[in-house]
Amino acid sequence: MAEFVRHRIPFAGRRAVTAPATCAQRHIWNLMQGQLPDAAFYDVCYWVPLPGHGTPQDLLDVFAELLGRHESLRTGFYRDEDGSLMQEVVDSGQFEAELWDLPADGDPDSVLQAWERRMRHTAFDPAQAPLIRFMVAVVDGVPALAAFCVSHLAVDLTSVRLLADEVTRLLDARATGRPLPPAEPSRQPVEQAQLESSPRGRALQARARAYWCRQLESAPATLFPPRNGSVGGAGGLAAPVRYSAGIASRAVALAVPVVARRWRVSTSVVLLTVVAQLLGRRAGLPSCTLRLLTANRSDPELRGTIANLHTEVPVTIDLAGDRVEDVARRALAACTAAYANGLYDPDDVEGLIASARENGAPVDLSYCFNDVREEHALSDASEDRATVSGAELRAAMADTVVGPDAFEEGETFFIVIDDETPGEIRMVLNADHRALTPSEVHGFLYDIERSLVEYAEGAEPEPAVGGAGRGAPQSA
Predict the structure, then answer these.
(1) Residue 307, Cβ density class (10 Å: 0-12 exposed, 13-18 middle, ≥19 buried)
(2) Can you say whether residue 222 is alpha, beta or left, with left for phi > 0 and alpha for psi between -120 and 50 degrees?
(3) What residue spans of 248-374 are helical by DSSP H?
(4) Which run of H or E residues covers position 45?
(5) Residue 470's pLDDT is what?
(6) How far is CA 123 from the centre of its chain?
């Protein structure tokens, strides 16, 4: 039977310092305030498979080392007397870690799942650093996996991946008696805040502000016009009720590289183009505006930073014309411009949106596209897959099933794309029932797959009727 012991482990860092919060930290803070009272909504759980050596104490030492290295992990947040959000880095304290002891035939995955469910309902106090907790599953005396739950105020997706890699490297060194590899030189959030208040930072924010103004002027009023007498969608629902479904598709994984080479764009732009086309056709619009999630790591000093640098930027895609590859090339250019404007003042942008609303301008940007795959460029191996037979694609489609998913979001339309399973691309769509009913969510995912397969075959897909695709929900 699995048993655990909760430890409180001391940590020590190089400095204690207080500074204004960064733009990205304020962006997440604002989102978190909108999600209250669910204070744990923006907490992130991530796990790391371990190489089968080392001791539990080695891992506790590794966790303490991580907090010493990365200031974001030992930072709390509060409002000062003027109401400004501040970040407060502490130089010492304690963190929490649970050690689960399992027998040789124990199941660490079930322990992990139970821990994640508990963390989902165990919110952090943002003022009390550190905003991270750890868990280790030990099977027959050997650590099998490690996991951490951390506030989105402290990290973004790139950061959790970097942390996972660092846990493995540090554990390998600790377990074999080698010196710990040094931390990668990187800009800490306090220095990022200083850059944002510098002339260069203010210039970047002014440029981004102008970009937002242009997007607010050009965005369609809505991607889901009222129907059946309801506001914003179907069913006459007065309040949002959201539903998620996922599709894991070998056919999409086969088709996307073929289409990307043909259109001369990245695989992410291929997926974005197809999603935008389906939304535009459904709404009868010549353009589509979606929010993209950008990592904001083009500066070399930020490549290895453990912090939340992520923001969301709108991008409007012109869908006009007969050639879809032209739409894709315009989407590539539009995305490049969007990503170049990822550093902005979130409070200023909220003011712009509120002002646009007061003036009657379109301001509905509640549609998100998030491709979380690590690689969007074509790999060298994909040269061998420059073409895929229609029979192979159709055979892969026959294996596809769409089913409900536990993914949660607060937007009208939010699609996430990953490739964690080799040979598959997985897409999860969360939507407000007033925009897409559950059966339409399933159909939309099938329509993405169908469109990509037909583009890979060299044909122009037939427009879907009402976004229904292959229709009714199926069990995964």
Answers:
(1) buried
(2) beta
(3) 250-263, 267-283, 324-339, 346-358
(4) strand 43-49
(5) 47
(6) 20
DSSP 8-state secondary structure symbol assigned to residue 31: H
Question: In terms of Cα–Cα distance, which of 169, 399, 160, 170 is closest to 295?
Answer: 160
Query: Taking a C-beta distance cutoff of 8 angstroms, is the pair 53, 138 a contact?
Result: no
Is the dihedral angle over the CA atoms 428, 432, 437, 440 positive or is it negative? negative
How many angstroms separate the CA atoms of 379 and 395, rounded? Answer: 24
| Per-residue confidence (pLDDT) for residue 79, from 0 to 100 | 96
Strand ranges of the sheet holding 287-294, from the earlier edge strand across to the other edge? 311-318, 287-294, 367-371, 413-418, 425-432, 242-249, 402-404
Give per-residue pLDDT as tens, 298-347: 999 999 999 999 999 999 999 998 899 999 999 999 999 999 999 999 99
Residue 469's pLDDT is what? 45
Contact 146, 54 (CB under 8 A): no
User: In this structure, what token pair is assigned to residue 338?
Assistant: 């969007």
Residues of the chain under the 50 pLDDT cut: 231-236, 382, 384, 465-476
How many C-beta atoms surround the C-beta of residue 386 within 10 A? 11
Instruction: Return d(Cα 196, Cα 204) in angstroms, integer.
Output: 8
Alpha carbon distance 329, 265 (integer Å): 7
* Residues written for the chain: 476
CA nearest neighbour of 443 among 282, 288, 316: 282
**Phi and psi at residue 266, to the nearest 5°:** -75, 165
Report the DSSP pairing between strands 92-102 and 402-404: unpaired
The confidence score (pLDDT) of residue 333 equals: 97
Instruction: For residue 142, give the nearest of 171, 165, 121, 181 by alpha carbon.
Output: 171
| Closest listed residue to residue 202, CA positions, set 193, 215, 190 | 193
Q: Which two tokens stand for residue 336?
A: 């490049």
Asked if 232 and 224 touch (Cβ cutoff 8 Å), the reply is yes
The helix-helix angle for 23-35 and 346-358 (nearest 10°) equals: 60
Tell whether the torsion through CA atoms of 466, 467, 470 and 471 is positive or negative: negative
Yes or no: say if 94 and 106 are a contact pair by the CB < 8 Å rule: no
Residue burial 34-60, b: 16+ Cβ < 10 Å; e: rest: eeeeebbbbbbbbbbebeeebebebbb
Let me know: does 131 contact 150? Beta carbons within 8 Å. Answer: yes
Q: Which residues lie closer than 8 Å to 384 by C-beta, 6 or more apart?
A: none
**Tokens found for residue 279:** 């939304």
Q: H helices of 340-387, where? A: 346-358
